[in-house]
Each structure stands twice: as structure tokens, then as C-alpha cells.
Write a structure and sequence with these properties.
- The complex is a heterodimer.
- Chain A is α/β, with parallel strands linked by helices.
- Chain A has one domain: Rossmann fold (3-Layer(aba) Sandwich).
- Helix content of chain A is 31%, strand content 15%.
- An 8-stranded mixed beta sheet of chain A has the order 2-1-3-4-6-5-8-7, sandwiched between helices.
- Chain A has 9 helices and 8 strands.
- The two termini of chain B are 33 Å apart.
- Classes of the chains: A alpha/beta, B mainly alpha.
């Protein structure tokens, strides 16, 4: 596919692939899939100019269901792959997708350093506070007293990971929280996340209706952050909000202006020839 | 299931605008029912998949009706999030979280019925806040139509027994195999 292809306005459903999702009916990830397609259509980005990169987990199946380039990678390594891709191809829109276990446990270290590095890409974490694909174990964002996990019948007793506060402290340049039940609102935030320079972190609370059916109630608990608190560029103000809102505020919670990581790409045929020479048999 | 979605968040000023909202609502209902049918097919619940396909077809007929009413009119062109639905989603979009792989035809009709109830509430709100006679007349007609749909769905639902408590219990819940 060529990026010189005639730019045409596509409808959201044209960004979907022919593969039908195998997610459980009722899963919040369906709403996120819809939001991604609406955001890409809203930004008029052609499918051949987008790459969706993921790790492993229910939500990491996202690249399969989109008609863009995609890479369903190794568990927890979506951000490493995505950063490499964006560095090599700064001209394309790179979006990493995945879940809370993939992103904050297995890929936790990559998460910290991608925030710190600040590449120009978007990370969508579908957070359901559980490992769904492996049948319902506690994840880094699970509350300490959740007692339905077979491995932790008395709860984990461990403080949950605070992804947005950690993203802010580590240097992410755009931070937002959305709800999968508000597909249109999420699409609107994703459009801004994609357009904002640097690393954009979007946590989408996306219920696992099979192992955490009580999460269906999230939509009644979440509230838009007060207008004066939305999209602040003051990191201290954003930190205060993120550490005290008990995870219920939605919207754009921080918009920074840190310099973007984009090393100059200098290819040298001479170096390549030297490299080949080194490995000559 | 909540039927409290009303709206829109502001007054609808013209019949063209109301028709645009109506068209968006019915289109979203068709998409949503087809999505639900696909989900059920994936999980081998073919009876309910078939039910959702029928509901999508019925909503498609509603699109035809609205399109006929819109003939010769210039409707405003809005992006998905420019419709000011209260709660973000259109009243007939249906609540995707209510779907379950073990759901039965009774549940599918229940889901559709609540969508129609929310649509009726939406048009009633439009009528209550109308400042234009044309909008008021059209909104009241649409309320009547949606209430008829609710009655039809109630009759349809009577053909199916209400599932007993515990219908969604699965001692071996699904895991996706790669």
C-alpha cells in the first residue's frame, strides 16, 4: 500500500477488518473498537497510514479486527515494538493497544520508559482489572479486596497500580481516562490523543462482563472531570487530581508540552556494507 | 437496564435536525443489532443471533420510513459525537454490556424493548422542549410510533417464557484459545 494513495473519506465501519471479534458478548472492548474506528475516520487517516501494535490478552486482539497495518506481538512488549516502529517510520500513526496485565505487569518496565522517552504515539489500555483470557486472575489494577479470583481467594491485599499517576510521573505528555460505554466520547478523546505530540496515554475502563460482571455498573459511577480540571498543562494540578479522584473522573486529565523523542534517521550505505562484511562467511 | 436516557442536551430547532437525529438513531440501532448477531454467531448462540438479525431488519424498515420523510429536505451532516445524546450514546443504540453469550430470545426482545422506550422518551423530551410547531408535530408522531413498537415487542416477548434465575451460570466459562 502506498501513502500516496488518493485520500478518501471513509466511514468508521470501513476501518474494521473481515475478522469477527471473539470477545465475550457484552465485553467493553467492542465499544473501544468502535471508538478507534470513529476516531480514525474523524481524523481522515487512511488505513494504510496506521499501525496498531499489541501484546497478549483479550484486548490485544485489537489489530486483528482493524483494517490497518497491525502487529500482534509478544506479551508486554507492545510499547517496545511500537516505539521502534515510530522511530523508523515517523510518518505513520502508531497506536499501541492492550490490557492492564499486559501493559502494567508483564510490560510494566516498557510502560515507564515509554512515558519517559515520549515518542509520538498513542497507547490505549483497556483496563478491566482482571486477566480475562486466562480465566480471571487478579491484575495490577485489581482492588486488594477482590475475592473472586481463584488464585487470590482472600484478595491480593496489595495496593492497585495507579497507571495515570505513574504515567504522569514518568513523563507521558497526554493523559486521559474514558469509559467503553461512552463510545462516542472515547472517540473524541482518542482523536485528541492521536493529534497531541508525544506519548498519549488513554486508560479506557472496559468491563470484563464474564469475570467481573459487577463492572457493568462502572458507567453509573464515572463522571466527567470538572471543566476547570480538564486538559491542564500543570503537572502538579494533574497529579493532585489523579491521586485523589478515586478513579472516577473521565476526560483529558493532562496535556503537556515536553519535547518528542524522534532520533534523526541517518542511513549510510557505507555502514551497511561494513556490517555485511563483518558477517561474511 | 436504564430507560432514563432523554435528550438531546439542547433544543432541536427544525424538522430537518430532528430527522437527522432520527436517522442516526435508527442507523445505530441497525449496526448495534447486527453487531450483537455477530457476537452470538461467534458464540454459537444461533437462536438469539437470528433474533438480532430480525430486529436489525425491522430497524432497517424504520430507516426507510425516516428516509422517505426526509425526501427533498437538506439534513445537517453531523459526526457521531456531534449528536448531543444525553449520556453520549443514542437511545436506541442498546446497551452492549447487557449482552451475554447465554442470553435467550426473551432477553434480546427485552433489550430491544428498552431501546424503543428510551427512543419514545427522547422524542417526548423533544416535543416538551419544542419551540417550532413542525418539530412538535413530528416529535409527537414519533413518540406514538415508538410506543407502538414497544407494544408490538411486548406481544412478541409473550411467546417466550421468562428465563429462570441462574440462566447465565456457566460452570466452565469461556476462555479464548489462540
Amino acid at each position: 500500500m502506498s501513502s500516496d494513495t488518493l485520500q478518501v473519506q471513509l466511514q468508521p465501519k470501513e476501518y474494521k477488518s473481515a475478522v469477527k471479534p471473539v470477545w465475550c458478548p457484552g465485553c467493553g472492548d467492542f465499544g473501544v473498537l468502535g471508538s478507534i474506528t470513529k476516531a480514525l475516520a474523524g481524523l481522515h487517516i487512511q488505513p494504510e497510514n496506521v499501525a496498531i501494535i499489541s501484546g497478549i490478552g483479550c484486548s490485544s486482539r485489537m489489530p486483528t479486527y482493524l483494517n490497518t497495518y497491525g502487529f500482534h506481538g509478544v506479551h508486554g512488549r507492545a510499547l517496545a515494538l511500537a516505539t521502534g516502529l515510530k522511530t523508523a517510520r515517523p510518518d505513520i500513526t502508531v497506536i499501541a493497544t492492550g490490557g492492564d496485565g499486559d501493559g502494567f505487569s508483564i510490560g510494566g518496565n516498557h510502560f515507564l520508559h515509554t512515558c519517559r522517552r515520549n515518542p509520538n504515539m498513542t497507547y490505549i489500555v483497556m483496563d478491566n482489572q482482571v486477566y480475562g483470557m486466562t480465566k480471571g486472575q487478579a491484575s495490577p489494577t485489581t482492588e486488594p479486596n477482590w475475592q473472586k479470583g481463584k488464585l487470590t481467594p482472600a484478595g491480593t491485599g496489595i495496593n492497585p497500580f495507579q497507571p495515570l499517576a505513574i504515567a504522569l510521573a514518568s513523563g507521558a505528555n497526554f493523559i486521559a481516562r474514558c469509559s467503553s460505554s461512552d463510545s462516542n466520547g472515547t472517540a473524541r478523546v482518542l482523536m485528541q490523543a492521536i493529534e497531541h505530540p508525544g506519548f498519549s496515554m488513554v486508560q479506557v475502563l472496559s468491563p470484563c462482563v464474564t469475570f467481573r460482571p459487577e463492572q457493568r455498573e462502572w458507567k453509573n459511577r464515572l463522571i466527567p472531570a470538572p471543566e476547570e480540571m480538564q486538559a491542564t498543562s500543570d503537572a502538579a494540578e494533574a497529579a493532585r487530581l489523579l491521586l485523589t479522584d478515586e478513579g472516577v473522573y473521565t476526560g483529558i486529565l493532562y496535556k503537556g508540552n515536553r519535547p518528542v523523542y524522534q532520533p534523526k534517521l541517518e542511513s549510510s550505505m557505507e555502514n551497511i556494507a561494513e556490517f555485511e562484511e563483518e558477517f561474511r562467511i | 437496564m436504564s430507560d432514563s436516557i432523554k435528550g438531546p442536551a439542547r433544543t432541536i430547532g427544525s424538522t430537518e435536525e430532528l430527522l437527522a437525529y432520527s436517522l442516526a438513531m435508527e442507523t445505530e440501532a441497525v449496526d448495534r443489532f447486527n453487531d450483537l448477531a455477530e457476537q452470538m454467531e461467534t458464540h454459537h448462540n444461533y437462536e438469539v443471533a437470528d433474533m438480532f438479525r430480525k430486529l436489525a431488519k425491522i430497524e432497517g424498515l424504520h430507516i426507510d420510513n425516516v428516509s422517505r420523510a426526509a425526501e427533498g429536505k437538506q439534513l445537517p451532516s453531523l459526526l457521531a459525537w456531534e449528536y448531543e445524546w444525553q449520556g453520549g450514546e443514542s437511545p436506541e443504540g442498546g446497551l452492549m454490556e447487557e449482552a451475554h453469550y447465554l442470553m435467550q430470545p426473551w432477553h434480546a426482545i427485552e433489550l430491544a424493548m428498552h431501546g424503543e422506550m428510551r427512543a419514545a422518551a427522547f422524542y417526548r423530551h423533544v416535543a416538551d422542549t419544542a419551540v417550532d410547531d413542525g418539530v412538535l408535530k413530528m416529535a409527537l408522531e414519533l413518540v406514538e410510533e415508538e410506543e407502538e413498537h414497544v407494544e408490538l415487542l411486548k406481544k412478541w416477548q409473550e411467546r417466550y417464557p421468562k428465563p429462570a434465575e441462574g440462566w447465565d451460570e456457566d460452570l466452565d466459562p469461556p476462555a479464548m484459545l489462540e
